[in-house]
Amino acid sequence: xxxxxxxxxxxxxxxxxxxxxxxxxxxxxxxxxxxxxxxxxxxxxxxxxxxxxxxxxxxxxxxxxxxxxxxxxxxxxxxxxxxxxxxxxxxxx
Length: 93
What we know:
It is a single chain. This protein is mainly alpha-helical. It has helices at about 5-30, 40-60, 60-80. It has one domain (about 1-80). The chain contains three helices and no strands. Helix 1 runs parallel beside helix 3 (about 60-80). The longest helix has 26 residues, at about 5-30.
């Protein structure tokens, strides 16, 4: 997989994987925070990490982007599904 992408993209790919691992640690911590005391601060921090991840992805070549997006898909879907990123209750008006 990594041998299919150029060295600069490979470095950015590893950076993205480290950042998604950090997000996973945050998710696990928040699940243990039964009172939600740290949720707002955590949400701001994780939003910034995701923003940075997608900024780095934009720097990658097209094939590298595809590889990275497949690799972070599960973390991204979990995040947007469970932490209020998508509001399915909006009426669109």
